[in-house]
Each structure stands twice: as C-alpha cells, then as structure tokens.
Amino acid sequence: MRAAHTARERGWFPGGALFVDCHGYDETPAGAERLVEALLRALGVAAAHVPTTLDERAGLYRSVLAERARTSGAVLIVVDNASHPGQVRPLLPGHGAHRVLVTSRDTMPQLGAHLLRLDILRPEVARDVLGVTLRTAAPADPRVLDAPEATGNLCALCGYLPLALQIAAALLIADPGKPVTELVAELADSATVIDHLDDGERGVRAAFDLSYRRLGPGPSRLFRLLALAPGPETSDEAITVLYGADALPRPELNVLVRAHLVGPGSVRGYWTMHDLVRAYALDRVAREESLRAEGTRARARLLAHYQRRSEAADRHVQSRPAPAPSPGFSDRRPPRGTVDSGMSPWYRRGS
After folding, report:
1. Which of 27, 241, 282, 327 has the fewest CB atoms within 10 Å, i.e. the most exposed one?
2. 214-344 domain in CATH 1.10.3130?
3. In the chain, where are the structural domains located?
4. Helices and strands counted in the chain (H then E)
5. 3-state SS string over the chain?
6. Quick check: 257 and 265 in contact, CB under 8 A?
7. 116: helix, coil or strand?
8. Which of 77, 26, 86 is nearest to 54 (CA)?
C-alpha cells in the first residue's frame, strides 16, 4: 500500500486511485461480479445503473475508465488480497494509461504481469519496523533503542516477518512497562511461538490458517511432511522419500511454492521453509494422532534413506576398493547430495 501512496504523491496517477479487497483467503472470497460492482460505484456509477451480468459490468467498467483517462488521466487500481486470477482478470482496465497493482500470497503467472516477490525483511529493517511502530504510539518510548541486543533477538524470533513484528510491537505497546527482554523470554520459552504472536486482533496462526486451508489433500500432506526434514534445506530426493513416492511430487510441490509456503534453497533442487511456517506445519502434525503416526512413518523412511546413502558414501570414499560399485556413485568424485538432510552437501563446506 505504501507503493500506491507514493505513486499518488508523485503525481503519476492524476485520474485517482481505486482500491478493492478481494478477501481472497476468507471463507468466502469475493466474486468477480461483486468486485467490479464495487469499482463501478467508486467511479461514480449509481447502483441503479450497474448491469446484472459480469460481462456487462466489466464492459461498463472499461468504458468508464477509458473516459476517465481522456478527461482526468491515468488511474491506479489496487487489487488487494487476491487469491485467484479469476478475481483479477475482470478488473483489468483495458486502456493503456491505467495501471493495476495486485497483492496476493500466491504467485499468479497466468496474468502475464510483472512479478515482484517480497522476501522477509533484512534485520536492520525489522528493527526499524519495531522502533517506528513503538514510537508512533509513544514518541518517547526508549525500549528498542535501550535494548539493541534484545531487539535483534526479538526480530529473529519473529522470523523477520512484517506481520509477526507488528504483533510483537502491539504486545509491547499494550504493556508499556514490559521490557523487550521480557517479551523475548516469553517467546523463547513458548512451545508454540506462533500462538504467542497474537495481539487479540491479528495472529500468525490465523494468517497461516488462511493459506493452509486452501491447499488440497496432496499439497497439505506434503506441507506437513516437509516440516519433519532436519536441517534448513531439503533436497528433491529427500522430499520424494518423505512423501513415500517413486518420483518427486512436483504438482504438490508447485502448489506450495506458488503459495509461498516453500521456497527455493541455496542450490537448484533444494527447498526451504521459513522457521515460523515450519513451526506451524509441525503443530498441525502434532494436533492429530493420525497425522502424528503418518509423520513417524515418514521420518523413519527418511532416516533409513540417509543411513543407506551415508553407508554408500562411506564405501565410495574409502581408499580400499569396494567389492562392488556403490549404488548412486559411478566414480570417486565427491558425491553431490550424499548427505541431503537439507544442509549443503559436505564437500561444499570444505570438510
């Protein structure tokens, strides 16, 4: 939203700015008909003149925007919280002068738009978020400046996620006498930090719930199992073993990547989860006995796989000739991915 405000302040959109919330991750996302009607009303079209069908509404919407471009100039349309391309396509203006800014938790390449992926905040920016939020509520609040080490620890516990940082700031604002070190201790001692990051109105768990419940059975199962893998990154091979499949469950993995629940690792073929996302997935496993049993079986498969690969690697690197070729190794070069717990292979660490 800051980008939209900045664009308006710089005079890039003299025709004005429109905003519509798609409620894409609510129980009932807004339909395209309702969204186009909201924009038509914002453009000054009376309710009695709004057509009944989506095609008619979209046609009138484009006509009104074309006239606005002629009389007033370019318009910025902010489409917030979209979850599906079908919500967005009818809102595209048609006229080349206008621009549309779409925000979503999912990647929607079907729109043919420029994609800007927002990563977690840098540590120094995360500190600024906490400091600015506290000083906005109380300009003389010294807690962030007085406890730089504790503030850094708090940012790390929040995973440098803007939502988590805002909630942590709200918890401090609600208790002006609470030192940052005390909140850090509470979060560090909490078995489920995602439950502690809740200010009564916003919660990290609630935010993750919105994305999780949109997953189908296959992607949700893979999401839970991925959290069981040790180490910060997990290889394609390890994912296949966890899932209990003969080949990488690519469609399910793609769903998680598009939803930004899983991201690419340090090298191609490796994947990573944010710490808070992993904590959420592990909590989902722990909540149901059937999921715990499934997780136990998946972890046993993965550990057995690591043992087999480690034993094969050991035979491979021994100076004495092996009695037979080791599975997976054709020569004496360092075996990439031998230890694929998710950590970088041993030979790239120089050991």
Report:
1. 27
2. no
3. 2-111, 123-203, 214-344
4. 16, 6
5. CHHHHHHHHCCCCCCCEEEEECCCCCCCCCCHHHHHHHHHHHCCCCHHHCCCCHHHHHHHHHHHHHHHHHHCCCCEEEEEEECCHHHHHHHCCCCCCCEEEEEECCCCHHHCCCCCCCCCCCHHHHHHHHHHHHHHHCCCCCHHHHCHHHHHHHHHHCCCCHHHHHHHHHHHHHCCCCCHHHHHHHHHHCCCHHHHCECCCCEHHHHHHHHHCCCCHHHHHHHHHHCCCCCCEEEHHHHHHHHCCCCCCHHHHHHHHHCCCCEECCCCCEEECCHHHHHHHHHHHHHCHHHHHHHHHHHHHHHHHHHHHHHHHHHHHCCCCCCCCCCCCCCCCCCCCCCCCCCCCHHHHCC
6. no
7. coil
8. 86
Place of tokens 């339909």: 31
If one looks up domain 2-111 in CATH, what number appears?
3.40.50.300
Q: Which amino acid is at 290?
A: S
Q: Which residue has the tokens 């899932």?
A: 243
Q: What is the pLDDT of residues 201-259, one digit of tens each?
A: 778 888 888 888 889 999 999 999 999 988 888 999 999 999 999 999 999 999 999 88
